[in-house]
Every structure is written in structure tokens, then in C-alpha cells.
Amino acid sequence: MPHHRRLPSEVDINKSVNWINSPGVWVWYISLIVAVWLLTSALMNDPGLAWTYVHLIHGVTTYYLLHWTKGSMSPGDPTEQGMYDRLTVWEQMDSQIYGTSNRKFFTVVPIALFVLATHGADFRKQPLGLNLVVVLVLLIAKMPALHKVRIFGINQY
Amino acid sequence: MGQAHHPNAPWYINAICTWALSIVIFCGRIRDLFWRRPQTRTGYADLSDQREDFYNRRMYRRIHDCYNRPISSAPGAWIDVMERVDIDGKAMSTQPDLVGGTRRCLNLGSYNYLGFAAADEYCTPRVLDSLADWGVSTCSSRTEAGTSAIHRELEQLVAEYIGQEDAITFGMGFATNAASIPAIAGPGSLVLSDALNHTSIVAGVKASGAKVKVFRHNDMAHLEKLLRWHIAEGQPRTHRPWKKVIIMVEGIYSMEGETTLLRELVALKRRYKAYLYLDEAHSIGCMGASGRGLCEHAGVDPRDVDVLMGTFTKSFGSAGGYIAGSKQLIAYLRRHCPAHLYATSMAPGVAQQIISAIRLMRGEDGSDRGARKIRQLKDNSNYFRRRLQDMGLHVLGDWDSPIMPIMVYHLCYISGISRRCLQRRIAMVVVGFPATALLMSRCRVCISASHTKEDLDYALEVIYDVCSKMGLQYAARQLPWPWCWLRLLLWPPAFGNYRPGDSSSSYEKGSSKSSSSGSSRVWAWLGGGSGKGVMKAHSAAAAAGKAQPLVTAAA
Known about the structure:
The structure holds 2 protein chains of 2 kinds.
Chain A: H1 25-43, H2 47-68, H3 89-92, H4 101-120, H5 125-141
Helix pairs in contact in A: 1-2, 2-4, 2-5, 4-5
Chain B: H1 11-34, H2 54-60, E1 78-84, E2 98-107, H3 123-134, H4 142-146, H5 149-162, E3 166-170, H6 173-184, E4 190-194, H7 199-208, E5 211-215, H8 220-233, E6 245-250, H9 262-272, E7 275-279, H10 294-298, E8 307-311, E9 321-325, H11 327-336, H12 338-341, H13 348-361, H14 369-390, E10 403-409, H15 414-423, E11 426-427, E12 429-431, E13 441-446, H16 453-469, H17 483-490, H18 518-525, H19 532-546
Parallel strand pairs in B: 2-11, 4-5, 4-6, 6-7, 7-8
Antiparallel strand pairs in B: 1-2, 3-9, 8-9, 10-13, 12-13
């Protein structure tokens, strides 16, 4: 059940994800995206179209890292004992509570990249369609209604 | 004395550390794609999943020469570290081979707070006599044939020393928590556990089946909120009242060096009718005026704490753990705790060491060595902590606590610090993920009463040198941007507060440092490393470390 809880706030003891709440991690994330954009726009002539590439690369990478890889970074840790083995990183974040500022940030970034990509490609049809598919997949994956849901049992174990 | 502040790394340090980690992890992933070791036994499942094992293979193993270093002497103030083959950055699945020599290093890693790790003129002869009388092992569990007069004496002595009615002792410290907590808490109990509690407490609570709620470290307001909410709600789903509510905290947290807020905890527990379980593994023997632990240090009556747990490994130079409490509690544990019923009882020599150490601490050997040890430990700890803070390092922990974690934050630095310190004959423990949070790596110093001031000064020299070269002086005054970067380019970090030749010490006697020559002092001030004159004195100390007497006469 998606958890917009109003209990006294929990302490996040999940060592694999509680570093995301440290100050400066958002700065790292944005700077990583900007660095990849600089790299792609240096390799191709069109910096606007480079945003499309950045958006697609970002989409694939974050889908794999946040919504596909499961488990803990320290699997031998006796304090966890495999509690998080079936949970993706997105589900483990913030003690599995939705509606936190962290989650809002990670939801806004693909939307912002989508806007930049479509604007950078001057709203041409073909990149727009591809960008739209990517951003919709990411947004649906981040919805609280899909907490611990595995469609057709894909990626369950 | 007040609580030390909890420094966090500034945001740009975290951003840089995350960048470095992401590069390391990216390279590791590329290696996993192309250079993965093939399966050795076809048809069998892997022992560990390749994806889960990533941190272990691609990050931990590359620096595994910084961990599990074998030693070949008693872990006193100076220790013999056995030399091993240089792994040169290769990740190996086996331990590096021994080369054959040993390296005499200053021991800043052992939990040897009162100096009992080395042979002692009062304790060791008595331990050897007990071996002759009782043998090496009891060869039985306590309930069968393993209880002897030594065990009874030990338990009575521990109870008197702590200030409780009765005590029970076990052969292993970890097992004391892991086996007693399930006997005390059970399904239907609520356990409120500090966020930074040790693995043994977490293991015990998980094994007990009680419901756990974690409160933010040392945050009494959060604990009270949780207490009010969960006592009002009752057990999940049925909302029946809890069978018992237990608050679990530690005396000194071994990765932070901080004490818990015992007075506030006792006030809270009285108000909400909860039990208090205090794990004094690191604070027994070294906190308080006579070493009776955190209760004495905080001015709390030990009988206000329901369960006082501790270990003998740290301050008493022995092994095992104890639980002290009311007669009712201890009698219950004697019937229900599996570590008492089934595990082999404490070896007689081990018990005798604890008995002798406690008697020494109480002054029953006729001298004041016990009181002097505690005073020496406190002086050493406060001096070292103040000097580290003067250097501009982020040091956690409270005053009077002998544990000093120096924050590194950056996971990629810890191997460099560890190797450089070992090369300069300092054996210091570095801790990274997963023992600490991912961005909060640290190196930890454990001070002992058997460290002399020369030892501490030598350690401070080396730490200053290593840490200034690696840029760990997060707390020092910084120039505004961009001059701070410009200054870093032109010459190594220099900070006006600290000069290696100073000693702003709490010692009455003058410092025993040799004076460095004029030019080397300027160079030292600029941070270019300590002058040659100072180093000569300390290499003499290092050589003198080789000739440490077996029996420590001073401390």
C-alpha cells in the first residue's frame, strides 16, 4: 500500500540509500547531467538535439539504476538480512515513504529534461515521440501506486 | 562536559565524494561487463550473486590490505604488525602472503583503554597461577559442570563494582547481547533502539521477535515522540497494550565516541514506564572518576538503569561480557539465556584477569595504579582530542571519551591514509561503508592509558602530516573562494592555528619536544611537513618502542 504516512518520522537506516539524503547529492546529480550534456554537445554539432540524447541516456540509466536493480549494496550485512532483496532502489528510498522532497526532486528531473529536449529539438515530431515515451515510462515507474508492483512478474526475483 | 557537535561534510565535499564514487563504480561496472571471472564449477549456483557482490569485489577487495592485518605481539601501546606482500591495487580473493618481517607500530587501533592488554605486574602472575589451579578451559557450560568459585567471585565482584544487586557473565561479548535480548524482549514487546546501535544489539532484537522502532541518534525529543505515539497505539493491528517497552542505547558509541544522554533517558523512562538497557561495552572501566562507567560519569544511580550490559574486552584486557541488574532479572537470565545454559563458560584465566583488573581499579592491590590509569587515560584523551581539533580536523565524540573518529567522508581516501600511516609506523583503523554511512568514512583513534606523551606527540605529527597532505582539515578557517583554490595550487595547506612544534597541553610539566631549527619551523608552518629535527626525536621514540618493557611500570 502506498505510504503517505503521518507517523513520527522514521530514521532511515537503509545504508544503501540513505546517502541520497546527504547535502550535496542533488548538486552531484545535476552536475552529472550537465557534464553529460556538455560531452554530447561537444561530440555532435547540435546542442539542442544533445538534450534529447541526454534525456534518453538519463532515462535508460535511471530506469536501470532506480527501477530495475534490486537489493542492498552490502548484502552480507547481518542487520539487514535480505530485507531489501526484492525492492528496487526507488522503493527502498526514504524508508519506503512517498511524497518526500527527495522523491519530488527525482520526479521533476526527467520532466525538466523532457522540456529541455523537446525545446532543443524545436518540437519536431520524431524526437518528441521518443522523449514522450521515455518520460511517461519513468513517471509511471515512480508512482506510489506501483510500489512493489511487478507487471507480468518481470524482475520479481 | 557538553556534547560535541555532530559535523556534517559541507555540500561541496559530498558532491565531490559522490562524483569520485560514481567514477569508481562506473569503472567497476565496465570491468564486470568484460573481465568477469568465469564460473569455476559449472552447473552449481554462485555462492554470492555477481550483482550483489559488486561492492565487495570491485571496491572493498582493491584496498583489502588495509584490513585484517595480522599482528604478532600483545596489543599494548606499541604493536608488531606483520608485513605482507604489496597488493599494488589488484583485487585478490585470498589474503596477501606474509613476507616474514614485522613492523613495530604505535597502536592506535586496539581497545586497550586502561592498558591491560600488555602484561601487568599485578594481574599476569595471578592469571598464570589460576591456570595452574583451574586449567585452561572449564570444558562445560555453566549449568552442567562449568561454574566454579572463580565465576561466583567474578559475578559478585562485577555486581559490587557496577553498583547493582547481581550480575551474570558470559564468555563472549557479542553473544551477551545477541542471546540475552531475546530472553528479555519477546513478541509483544516494543524496543526503541538508537539509530547507531551496535550489530549485536540489532541481531538480538531481530532474534527476539519484538517490534523495533529506531530513533534518531541521541535525539531525546524524537524518542519521546515515538514513545508517546507507539504506547498510545499499542501493538500493530490489535492495538493491545505492549507487554513491555525497552529503550536500548549504548554508553559510548564505538564509531562516534559520543556518550548517550543518560539523565534525560532516565527521566523519560520514569515518565513513560519503560525499561532502559544500557550497553556499556566501551564505557565501563574508562568513564567516571573510578571507572564505574557512564552512570558514574553522568551522575545517575546505577539502580535506575534496569539492565546494565558491558564487555570485558575493552577496558579489562580480557574477554566476555556481563549483564548486571536486579536479583530477579539475573535469576531469570540464569534460567532462560541460551548463552548461559548451553555455551561453554568463561575460561578461568580470563575470569581471573577480570577479577584482578577490577581489584586493581578499586585499589585493593595497595597502590593507586588504578586511579592513576584512569587519570592518565582521561588526560591522554583530552589532550589528543584538543590537539586534533586544533589541527582543524573534524573529530567526533565527547570530552573524556577515549575514542576519536577523525572524519574523512571520502571513501576513496581511507586506503591512502591507512597505508601512509602504516608506513610511518602508526597502526590506525580506517572505517568505510558498510560499517559507516557511504559518505561518512572515518579513521578512528583509540587512546590508551599506556600511551606516553611522546607516543601521542609522535602520532599527532604523523596524523598532521598525512591529513594536511590529503586535505582533511575541514574545520580550519578557509579563505573565501576563489582564493582558497589559488592557495591550494601554490603551496600545501597551511593553517595559522597549528604549528607542529606547539604543545597546548594539559600536562603540568613542560613538553618534551625538541626544538626544530628556524628554517624548518617556517617550512613546518607552511605545512610542508615536519622539520628534520622534530622527526629525529620521534624516530628515536619509535626505536625506543622496540624496547618496551614487558611489564608496564608507569601506567
